[in-house]
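tokens incoming
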């Protein structure tokens, strides 16, 4: 799941141009995320394919590297996302988006029925 979404996010740009600094940063993070997901899957499949009785050290090493990579990269991405959502720029752009949005609606009078 994470590998597919990481691959798709490399090609999706929210706003601006491809060469903007903000988009390049997120594209690089998406690319690294795809790579780490792919490596983690390869290590996990290798762990499942190795006989633990014959090569316990290799099996444990592959499992440990896979889980460590998942945890480490998850923490790094969490820090980047937390930083992006708590930055003053994100708060200003969210406030600007909410104040510039105008909605128009037509209010019709309610029809009242008298029941006798």
């Amino acid at each position: 799941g994470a590998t597919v979404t990481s691959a798709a996010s490399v090609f999706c740009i929210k706003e601006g141009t491809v060469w903007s600094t903000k988009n390049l940063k997120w594209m690089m993070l998406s690319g690294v995320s795809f790579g780490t997901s792919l490596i983690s899957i390869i290590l996990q499949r290798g762990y499942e394919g190795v006989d633990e009785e014959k090569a316990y050290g290799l099996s444990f090493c592959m499992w440990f590297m896979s889980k460590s990579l998942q945890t480490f990269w998850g923490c790094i991405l969490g820090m980047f996302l937390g930083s992006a959502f708590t930055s003053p720029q994100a708060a200003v752009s969210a406030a600007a988006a909410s104040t510039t949005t105008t909605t128009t609606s037509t209010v019709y009078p309610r029809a009242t029925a008298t029941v006798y």
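note: The longest helix spans residues 56-86.
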